[in-house]
Amino acid sequence: MGFYLWWSPPLYAQQPSAAPLFLPLVAAGGAGQPVETPQQSSIQLINQAVLAGQLTDEQGLIHQVQAVVGDPALPARYLGNDAGLDGSTVLAEVVAKFATLTPATQAQLQPYLLPPSAPGSWFAQQEANAAGIEETHQEWDTVATANGKVKVWYRTATASHGARAIAIARAIDQKVWPALTELMREPLPDCGATCHTGGGDSRIDIYLTNVRRSYTQPFTCCDGSSGFAVMRADASFPYIARALMYIIQYSYPIDSITEYRWLMHASAQYAMHYVYPAANEDPDYPARHQEHAKAGDFLYRTLYPLETVDDGHEFGAYLLFYWIDDPSTLPSVWEAATNPDSLAVINEQLYNGFQEMWPKFAVDNWNREPVDYYKRNDDLAIGPETIEDFEMNEAGIEEFVIDIPHLTSYYFRFTFPNRSLKRITVFNPIAGAGDPTGALWAIMKIDGTWRAPQDWSDRSYEIFCRDEPNQNLEELIIVLANSEWQDREHVVKTDMGSVRVSPDCGGLLTGTFTVRDAGQTTMPSGARGDYERTTVVNVRLRYVEEENEYWDAGSSYTHSGSVYAEGREVNTGELGYVIEWTESGSGEFTQDGTQIKGSVYYGDEPGEQDGTWVGSIIRLHKSGRTTYYPSEFVVPIEADENTTLLCNDPTGVRGVRNENGVFDMTCSAEWSNDSGSGRLTVTGSLRLE
Length: 689
Prior knowledge:
With 689 residues, this protein is an alpha+beta fold. Helix content is 24%, strand content 34%.
């Protein structure tokens, strides 16, 4: 059995001179990737019709505006689920494109671009139509914030809106304005009495009225502008914060609405959390963590690139800013928004860029133990679904082929309930793909405990023998990610990945050998020296079929030794210095620089003995001093070093199998010259189990 997944890009509506607008709800949603909402939004339905050729681009734009304001002229087939969504970038796109639209489209859109209180606005027309007259004068009143920066408009005919305007103005004064302007900057003053959209003065205008989606609208695009907001009267304080964040964003020059659309929504959604990180402090509409409403649109759609715009995913992308955990990133991003590549701007803000941080972000997005960052810190309990779950109850292999688009991630789960299956091997297709943007991380549950994630991107395979300590793998989450951001068509294509389980862990090579090394010297000057070292290696190696070698399965060592050396004047024999230290070391072969592995070879010719080889590097500590004479000045010696154990082989120690079937590790090597002599011996034996 196996799972095969090739990347098929989502359908998108190509806007004139625009980047793709991804619509994952239109295309196949991706295996195992549920969507958050049971119904498509109005914008998604309209974009689907544009993509299918049922609407022109301009017709689609008109219908999008109608969907935002709640115009009953919108055909019912395009009416979707718009709960909690914002229409700001729809109106911003109209402002940006207005001069390029046909006169007929301009005339049809013009009333929507006027503030609700303005004569001739769509809102005024709707009231006139309801009254059966050509035009009516709407009665509006305002509540000004104490800081003199904002006016909240409301219809006097709706008494409850007046009380709500007072509450919103107070929230702006006390919380929203100070928080966002300290983080970012103050929004630009609006056009005031000099234009028909300025509300009569330079204060920012917020209109409370009956509208399908709250939205903001810039006066111009995209060289730095102010704007106004049209809000549902039931919009709670975090949504007011989101609206003000949009208006602040308009003050920054940007390359284009199309390129920065996803980022506008992501950072505005983050502003909801930044100002109201838990309770919304709204007595009329109390709630907690209202930004969470769109988190699932990102976490349930990790198969789609970060910059995807689908009227959902871009709001949920606020999680990137939450994960970065540095609010100062936001002003830095918007100060650089004239860059034609929004991903380049984000890359600059990430420590070591997407290359290092995107896989780590993908791991934390799993949001389950032990990487439940969002759950522990922000009470967000959801996380991505797996592409496929494999329960491996029998010996065999499960295969998967993965193609990973840029800035995406997805997840596989493997469980191993059958304890009689002793050996688990994970073959990593990323390691051999030759693409540095691909990454594979592992989250492991061993002996009932989730362990810290590990980066396996450069490891061809990982082997677990469940009888060994800390290797009883019970559950494995594989996280795959592609950190490429410059090439938006890039896909990491890999060879076959697989997980194999079998009942036998493979044979063991066990035993003990001891290496002793001693010698002494005496120079003509009378200077003498001697050394003595002993290392005992307790070998426990397990056969790894994939490498035809025996790898460490709990080996350990102990080491002790001493060194003494003198330096004397050649002619007089006067003592100049003495160097002396002791050596010590012990532990398993898991310390930095240590290593042990082995092999067994079999005699093919008559009389040729079977043999074994063990290569080992130990780590030891030297402690002592150098004393200089006659001053007796002392220089301490404290140092760590790695040493390779060698005898009868340039890379290790060899042994031969005797008549008892045991590998005899006996070996000796001697040296001697006019100054002294030394002898190295190896004793001990190993056996196969």
